[in-house]
Amino acid sequence: MTSNDSIETPLLRVPFESLRRTTRERKYVIDEVQSVVSTLHEASTRPCSRDEGEKTLDGVLQRLEGLKRKLHETTKVEEVEARRCKARLEHLVSIGLPEKDEATKWNDKRMDRILADYMLRRGYHRSATQLARERQIEDLVDVHIFAEAHAILEGLARQDCSAALQWCAQHRTRLRKIRSKLEFTLRIQEFVELVRQERMLEAIAYSRQHLSPWSDLYQADLQRALAALAFRAGTACKPYAALFEEGAWKELAELFRKDLYRLHSMPLDSQLSIHLQAGLSALKTPQSYSSTSNKEDPLSTEKFQKLAEQLPWSKHVHSKLICAITRDLMNEHNPPMVLPNGAVYSQKAVQMMAAKNHGIFTCPKTGVSCDVNDLRRAYIS
Question: What is the protein's major site of localization (predicted)?
Fold first, then answer.
């Protein structure tokens, strides 16, 4: 698998995983239909009164109506996700790999969806939706996933856990499979808020109903939270003071985001961050941080240096020189030429500029002029 395949994998994986989950749900519904048919068959072999028979049929009809609605909803989801899979496959096939000297144009075709993904993750839902609609890339961007998440994050920003808890209830089975701690953490936060407001009896009743079922999994965390009943808000005891910090709501929002991404098989970092890290890692060398670095190097700027702090150094097995005038590669066919002042330019650039100035070459950086015959060829090791 190429590096480009690895970067583009989430684009296909998100709708594919959703389609696979929906297919499993369809199987469960069909199995339940078969169970209803078996129940009806068994009932038909037993003697019963007219009223009992009608009651049994009514129950069967109600179950079948419910299953019919589930199948209808599942079919609609399958159609949407299949359409997204098809659109994304066609998108990747259409852009293919960049042709020579066409990388910028090739990247333009991908940049819109990468920017839309970044805006959705940063909370700019309207802007991302508008961009996707104007560029006709709705099927290439996971707007529907972030639309649901947007309302939950707004609720957490208002210190309201109700929407997040409802989301946990809807996805409880899948959250358990990924060993999510989100629902327990939300319950702890609601308990802490009751303690903060000194509604102790309500807090105790809440802990019995909503926290005690988690005792086997998170006993230490549960004991620490219950001890808050004694310490209360404003305590200076660090283990318990941390429960009442306002930053806990931001941590909850971040935990929800991480579980949302894991649940939908999405990478934790945005596509924009992944591409930036890949590019900066390829460029990062000790020379980039020196005072004599090329100002056209992105890593010569402070902001890019900060982004690349945790990235590894680039490994260059062979030296590669680029002419500052023509931007051409300097090699055996276009060798580097060294001026008396130590500056280096390609032979092509030297000849081109010297031809316009009667055999005299002037360094564009230092202004030093010299005869072309005074330049010497350098050899790349």
Answer: cytoplasm
How far are the Cα atoms of 215, 220, 310 from residue 254, in angstroms, in the given order? 24, 22, 21
Residue 24 pLDDT greater than 70, yes or no: yes
Q: What is the pLDDT of residues 293-324, one digit of tens each?
A: 777 778 888 888 888 888 888 776 566 788 88
Tokens describing residue 36: 């209803």
Of 114, 146, 157, 126, which Cα lies nearest the Cα of 261?
146
* Alpha helices for the chain (secondary structure H): 3-45, 50-95, 103-122, 125-134, 143-157, 162-170, 172-177, 182-196, 200-206, 219-231, 238-241, 247-263, 271-283, 302-307, 347-355
**pTM for this model (two decimals):** 0.70
DSSP state letter for 341: T
Q: What is the average pLDDT across 180-204?
A: 93
Largest CA distance in the chain: 116
Q: How far apart are CA 291 and CA 294, in angstroms?
A: 9
CATH class assigned to 321-377: alpha beta
| Mean predicted confidence (pLDDT) in 6-11 | 74
Average pLDDT for the chain? 85
Do residues 257 and 264 make contact, with C-beta atoms less than 8 angstroms apart?
no
Q: What's the N-to-C CA distance of the chain in angstroms? A: 32
Q: What does DSSP assign to residue 288?
A: G
316: CB partners within 8 A, 6+ apart: 285
- Locate the domains of the chain by residue range: 1-95, 177-263, 271-307, 321-377
Look at phi and psi of residue 124 and say left if phi exceeds 0, alpha if psi is from -120 to 50, else beta: beta
